[in-house]
Amino acid sequence: MARLPREFYLGDTVEIAQQLLGKYIVRRLPQGGDLVCRITETEAYVGRCDKACHAYGYRRTARTETLFAPPGHAYIYLIYGMYHCLNFVTEPEGEPAAVLIRGAEPVGNPDSISLLRFSRPFAQLTPYQRRHFLDGPGKLCKGLSLTKVENGMDLTGDTLFVCDRAEDGGLPSPPTVPEKMCRGPRIGIDYAQEAVEFPWRFWLEKEDKK
DNA sequence: CTTCAGATGCTCT
DNA sequence: GAGCATCTGAAGA
């Protein structure tokens, strides 16, 4: 399938965060079966100049090691003791930077994702749970069954990758309604001083919202 | 719709 | 020992 090549992840992190919007994540489960979702929200983190980044100032520890990997790897870490966050490593090897995947929407049958997240099929969820199905980094990782075990995974491999179109993930593209890209400061980084206001969060919004 | 507390464990000082 | 790139359910307005 036509997954994005490593070169896609090589460039500027803030640009890649925008280019990832609308693209499709394919997660191939160890027990078989593909989970597919469409990216709707991202954030850029750049170790070189960004106090919000775990590897700010090229700080290299056991946790941040993955951020120094070549572009096109998954950086996954545990947050608040019980949730995980999925990032895609960007920029040349040795430049610690990544795009956090903050939100997505399911593509195709959502039951597999729903079972992983709620232990029940999508039809049995409350309207609130459906409306906020994958709109957070912790929710996304739970729904795609991603944990620290998958940290460092190569995105050009077979178990986790990104496609331009849903067909590349084996599913028909959903009907598209007009969307606009929005931009603003990142979430949950109050400690990051001047970087608090960097407008490095990007998300897609439906045009028909009144 | 909003606020609020609590859960929980790893990482770094 | 402090803090964290979060989420949930309960309660109030």
Task: Outline the secondary-structure elements.
Elements: H1 13-19, E1 24-28, E2 34-46, E3 74-79, E4 83-89, E5 97-106, H2 111-118, H3 127-131, H4 137-143, E6 160-163, E7 179-184, E8 201-206
Antiparallel strand pairs: 1-2, 1-6, 2-5, 2-8, 3-4, 4-5, 7-8
This protein binds a DNA duplex (13 and 13 nucleotides) through strand 3, strand 4 and helix 4.
Would you mind describing this structure in some detail?
With 210 residues, this protein is an alpha+beta fold. Strand 4 (83-89) and strand 5 (97-106) form a beta hairpin. The protein is built from 4 helices and 8 strands. Strands 1, 2, 3, 4, 5, 6, 7 and 8 form an 8-stranded antiparallel beta sheet that branches. 13% of the residues lie in helices and 27% in strands. It has a single domain (6-206), classed as Roll (3-methyladenine DNA Glycosylase, Chain A). It has helices at residues 13-19, 111-118, 127-131, 137-143; strands spanning 24-28, 34-46, 74-79, 83-89, 97-106, 160-163, 179-184, 201-206. It is globular. It binds a DNA duplex (13 and 13 nucleotides) through residues 43, 45, 52-54, 61-63, 77-83, 85, 87, 100, 102, 136-139, 142, 148, 186-189, 191-192.
Cα end-to-end separation = 38 Å
The number of strands is: 8
The percentage helix is 10-25%
Order of H and E elements: HEEEEEHHHEEE
Poorly predicted residue ranges: none
What CATH calls the topology is 3-methyladenine DNA Glycosylase, Chain A
Radius of gyration: 16 Å
Oligomer: single chain
**What is the level-2 CATH architecture name?**
Roll
Structural class: alpha+beta
Strand content: 25-35%
Shape: globular
- What's the average pLDDT? 96
